Structures are given as structure tokens and as C-alpha cells.
């Protein structure tokens, strides 16, 4: 947890007051629930509070004072309509606004009366696309949509479910185990309990290294082989690009409603190698992917992957989930309201994509400028050394080679100055390389996450079932109405009527089964969207690593550059400055 961001900042007394009250409310310790109760006093929208709690909690459920102070700092920024992120805290740490917490002193006394399932809040921010917008057009077919427990299930557990278990009929209102009132749930925030293995968000960590094999593959048509080494499995296998392409398509087929790694196009060999490395490492960071049986085979089986696919008993079906099992304590309305804002979230993801693309482009431009400055400084330093090179006299006169003491000192000092400028040149070029290979690369990995989220949402848009559900329901309602009329007209229908009744009853049964199947699929889509959206938001925590490293590198670079320029200044001060010294022996 990057709680060191504001350790050295002098904070107003409200921070200590709130921490003491939260300790009392948590029975001597500051728990996640105590933090939620404290942030409730800020009057912030529930989705903002959920985002802050996710960022501040390290996963243990208990918060240090530094964690707590960081959460209050983000809340204070949010109250001033600024972004409640680590990046924003770092940027404004010397001018943080004071958090406004109404009645914070009474927090400990009222803690026993507060609900522990969520945080009571005011309304949503009107222009914030991350808010859970209320829906007016959700039909009764999706009213039973499952919310989430947000715990990744193992693929083999999911695959073991039978069709009947997967497509069980939704419970009636009288038998549903969760009967939370919609009006009450609208006043609560539910912090998603997703798999919080830290490796997911540590985009700077690398488990896989890839390099081109020394020998080309193929007999007639040569192709490039790649040696793929994985630290987790202590393995090294040889794979072709088409093997990576196959595993990428498999992930889309197997996990259509999940974010996962994106395979880069073949492109130029250098870019392809970097892209494949990012792709492989992205797979190994995601818990449910690195435990997939076929993914393990891809990274560990030393046979040709085509042979592995040929002899293996592969499960190529899409993963199946039971939304009711994943619902947990979160009410269905929470998932529905989130999915109702799908278009808003899509717009925000598209903006994130553009924002990161611009940032990457700018950093790469700066890196090129740094390289160019380094080259020019090196060329400049060469001119100083060239002035000291021995020259031949055209006339052969010895007078040409006679130099004064000042001239000899000048030549020596200019040589020293040239070395100082050469050092600065190397520093500028090294700084440019760091910006390109680390800062821009880290942003590119975060950009890949945004693209993965956008592609997943595109798949959801193409496959959502709401229109199909409405069509089947209307057809089923019409058949039911006709069937009721036939049954009501004649208590003892003749054979012709009996045939029509049997046909309609069969159609009603088929449509009812199809409607239930479509409703289940739609619930799966909505639950997965709720889960993946929570994961997507968590990736923003990596911005702290990016900008901490960026600022640290800037300090390191400028400190070393300052030393080099100070040395150049000392040498420049030693240059002979007496004009007469250059003409008098």
C-alpha cells in the first residue's frame, strides 16, 4: 500500500480526530467497516466511497493510520470535485483540502447503531459516469439478475456444473433468500469482494521472459521460434507465433465475459517480441487464467503445441457460472443499476483509452527528444576536443606552433569541459532510454488493460440477450392468451380444439424454457460485468507505481545532471580570462 505518500505532510487535526473515533467504532482497531462509517460522514456518493475503500484497504481488513489518512485525503479531494486517486493525492499533497466530516466526534457513540452491510449515502454525482445509474427500462426478465460475491471460481469447478444446475429456474419472490428492500439498498454501498491477489495489479512484475530461438523452424518455409521461460513453473518451452494466436483465441472462447490479455499483431520483429512478452506476462498475472489447465500446458509442456492440442482432451466450452451462487450479500439491484450504466462506463473506458494513448505518445516523444539532446551535446563536446588536435603548418613556420601559457591552459580546460559535456550527453540519452523502456512501457501495460476492458464490453454488447428475452416473452404471452381463450370457450373441447391446445401448450413450454435460458445468460453477462468493472478500477492503483518511479527517476537524473553541470561550471571558472595572457609568452 503506498501509504507513504503523505507521511511527511502536516495534516489538520480532523485527521487525528477521525482516526481516534474510527478506532473507538472498530473496538480499538480501524476496520474496513469503521472506515466506511467515517467516509459516510463526508456525504460522498456510494461509488466514490467504494473506490476509496478499495484503494486504502491493503487486504487484511485492518487499516494503519497512514492508510486511514490516505483515505481521508482522497475523500477531501473528491469533496472538491477532484479525482480521488493516488495520482491526485501525490500531485496535491502540499495543498490537500481539509476533509469535511459532519459529526465525526459522535462516530464512536453511534457505531453500534450503524448497519455493517454498507454505507448510507446521499445521491449519485450527476455527471460522474462511474456512478450506478438507476434504470427505468430493466424488464422483469432481468429483475432477477444476480449480483456478485466477486470471488473467482476455479475453471474446473465451473466446468463440472451440469446443464440443469446451470439453468435452474429462478426462485419466486416468496422463496428468494435475499429480501433486501430496494429503497434501503439504494442507500448502501457494497464494496466488491473480488480476488485481491496483489500480482494482478503489479504490472511492473514479470514472470515470463521471451527471446527468439537461435534456429529457425520449418524445412521449406522458415518461421521464427520463441523460447518462453516462466519463473512460476520453472519451465522453458519453444512456441511459434501461431501458438500464441491459438491460446489468445482460446481465452476469448473460454472466458468471453472476462478481461484478459490481448495478442499483438505480428508487426515488425522487435515490436512483436515485446508484445508477446507483455501478452504472456498479462496471462500469468491473472489468477483464474494462470490456473487454467490449457494455459499451464502452454507454458510447461515441452512438446510442440500443435501436438498438445491434438492429443489433449480440451474443454473449449465457455465457462458457466451460477449467478445466484455469486450473488453473496450484494442485492440484485446493485448489479442491475451498474449494468444500466453500461453505456456510461463504455464512454469512460474509451476516454481512458485515449488518455493513456496520448500519455504514451508524449513520453515516447520526450524520450526521443532526450536522445536527440544527448546526441547534440556529444557533437558539441567533440568540437571542444577537436580544437586541441595537433595541426600541420602550411608554411612550415615554427611560429605557428608557439603557444602561450594561457593557451595551453585553455586547451587543457576545454578538454576537461568536453568530458563534462560528454557526461551530460550520456545522462540525457540514458534518461531518454529509461522513459521509453520503463515509464512508457508501464503505461502501455495499463493501456493494454483498458483495451482488454473495451474489447470485453464489445463482446457483451454483441451477445446481450435483452432483446431476445423481450421477443420470446411477447410470443409466449400471445400463446398463453390464445390458450386461455381456447380453454375458456369449451370445457370439453372437440378433437380439433384439443389438437390446437396441445400445440399451444407445447409452444408455451418451449418458449418458457428458452426464456429461462436467455434470462440465465443475461444474468451471467451482468454479473460478470459487475465483477470485471471492479477489477478494472483496481488497476488504477498501479498509477502510484508509475508516477512514483517517474518522479524518482527525474530526481535521480537531475541530481546527476546537476553534479555534471557543477563540474562543468568549476572547469569553466578555471578557464583563462586575461586577454593579455593569450599574446604574452
Question: In words, what does this structure look like?
Answer:
The chain is mainly alpha-helical and 585 residues long. It contains 21 helices and three strands. Strands 1-2-3 form a three-stranded antiparallel sheet. Helix 2 (32-40) runs antiparallel to helix 3 (46-56). The longest helix has 59 residues, at 405-463.
What would you say about this model in short?
By secondary structure, this protein is an all-alpha fold.
Shape: extended
E-strand count? 3
Helix content: 55-70%
N→C terminal distance: 69 Å
Low-confidence stretches: 111-187
From the structure above, extract its key features.
585 residues; extended; three-stranded antiparallel β-sheet; 58% helix; mainly alpha; single chain; 21 helices
Amino acid at each position: 500500500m503506498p501509504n507513504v505518500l503523505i507521511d511527511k505532510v502536516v495534516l489538520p487535526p480532523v485527521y487525528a480526530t477521525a482516526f481516534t473515533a474510527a478506532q473507538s467504532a472498530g473496538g480499538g482497531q480501524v476496520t474496513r467497516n469503521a472506515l466506511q462509517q467515517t467516509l459516510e460522514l463526508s456525504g460522498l456518493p456510494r461509488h466514490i466511497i467504494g473506490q476509496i475503500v478499495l484503494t486504502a484497504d491493503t487486504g487484511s481488513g485492518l487499516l494503519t493510520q497512514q492508510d486511514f489518512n490516505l483515505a481521508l485525503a482522497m475523500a477531501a479531494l473528491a469533496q472538491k470535485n477532484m479525482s480521488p486517486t493516488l495520482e491526485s493525492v501525490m500531485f496535491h499533497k502540499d495543498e490537500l483540502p481539509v476533509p469535511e466530516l459532519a459529526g465525526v466526534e459522535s462516530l464512536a457513540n453511534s457505531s453500534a447503531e450503524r448497519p455493517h452491510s454498507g454505507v448510507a449515502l446521499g445521491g449519485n454525482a450527476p455527471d460522474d459516469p462511474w456512478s450506478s445509474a438507476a434504470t427505468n427500462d430493466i424488464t422483469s426478465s432481468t429483475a432477477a439478475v444476480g449480483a456478485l460475491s466477486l470471488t473467482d471460481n476455479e475453471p474446473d469447478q465451473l466446468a463440472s456444473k451440469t446443464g440443469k444446475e446451470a439453468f435452474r429456474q429462478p426462485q419466486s419472490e416468496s422463496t428468494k433468500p435475499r429480501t433486501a428492500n430496494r429503497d434501503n439498498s439504494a442507500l448502501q454501498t457494497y464494496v466488491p469482494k473480488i480476488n485481491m491477489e496483489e500480482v494482478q495489479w503489479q504490472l511492473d512484475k514479470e514472470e515470463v521472459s521471451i527471446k527468439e530461438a537461435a534456429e529457425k523452424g520449418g524445412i521449406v518455409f522458415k518461421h521464427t521460434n520463441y523460447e518462453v521461460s516462466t519463473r512460476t513453473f520453472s519451465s522453458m518451452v519453444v512456441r511459434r507465433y501461431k501458438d500464441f494466436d491459438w491460446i489468445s483465441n482460446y481465452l476469448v472462447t473460454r472466458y468471453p465475459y472476462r478481461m484478459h490479455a490481448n495478442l499483438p499483431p505480428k508487426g515488425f520483429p522487435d515490436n512483436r517480441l515485446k508484445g508477446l512478452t507483455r501478452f504472456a506476462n498479462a496471462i500469468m498475472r491473472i489468477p483464474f487464467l494462470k490456473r487454467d489447465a490449457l494455459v499451464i500446458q502452454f507454458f510447461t509442456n515441452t512438446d510442440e503445441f500443435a501436438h498438445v492440442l491434438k492429443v489433449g482432451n480440451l474443454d473449449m466450452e465457455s465457462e458457466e457460472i451460477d449467478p445466484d451462487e455469486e450473488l453473496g450479500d450484494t442485492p440484485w439491484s446493485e448489479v442491475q443499476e451498474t449494468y444500466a450504466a453500461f453505456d456510461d462506463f463504455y464512454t469512460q473506458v474509451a476516454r481512458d483509452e485515449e488518455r493513456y494513448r496520448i500519455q504514451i505518445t508524449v513520453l515516447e516523444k520526450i524520450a526521443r527528444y532526450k536522445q536527440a539532446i544527448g546526441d547534440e551535446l556529444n557533437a558539441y563536446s567533440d568540437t571542444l576536443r577537436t580544437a586541441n588536435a595537433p595541426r600541420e603548418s602550411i608554411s612550415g613556420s615554427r611560429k605557428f606552433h608557439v603557444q602561450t601559457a594561457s593557451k595551453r591552459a585553455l586547451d587543457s580546460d576545454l578538454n576537461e569541459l568536453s568530458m563534462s559535456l560528454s557526461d551530460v550527453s550520456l545522462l540525457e540519452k540514458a534518461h531518454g532510454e529509461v522513459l521509453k523502456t520503463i515509464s512508457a512501457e508501464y503505461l502501455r501495460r495499463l493501456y493494454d488493460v483498458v483495451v482488454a476492458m473495451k474489447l470485453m464490453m464489445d463482446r457483451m454488447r454483441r451477445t446481450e440477450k435483452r432483446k431476445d428475452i423481450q421477443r420470446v416473452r411477447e410470443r409466449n404471452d400471445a400463446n398463453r392468451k390464445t390458450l386461455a381463450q381456447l380453454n375458456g370457450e369449451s370445457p370439453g373441447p372437440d378433437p380439433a380444439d384439443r389438437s390446437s391446445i396441445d400445440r399451444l401448450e407445447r409452444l408455451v413450454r418451449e418458449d418458457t424454457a428458452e426464456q429461462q435460458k436467455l434470462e440465465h445468460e443475461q444474468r451471467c453477462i451482468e454479473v460478470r460485468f459487475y465483477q470485471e468493472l471492479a477489477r478494472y478500477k483496481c488497476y488504477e492503483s498501479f498509477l502510484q507505481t508509475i508516477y512514483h518511479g517517474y518522479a524518482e527517476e527525474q530526481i535521480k537524473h537531475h541530481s546527476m545532471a546537476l553534479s555534471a553541470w557543477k563540474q562543468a561550471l568549476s572547469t569553466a571558472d578555471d578557464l583563462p580570462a586575461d586577454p593579455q595572457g593569450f599574446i604574452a609568452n
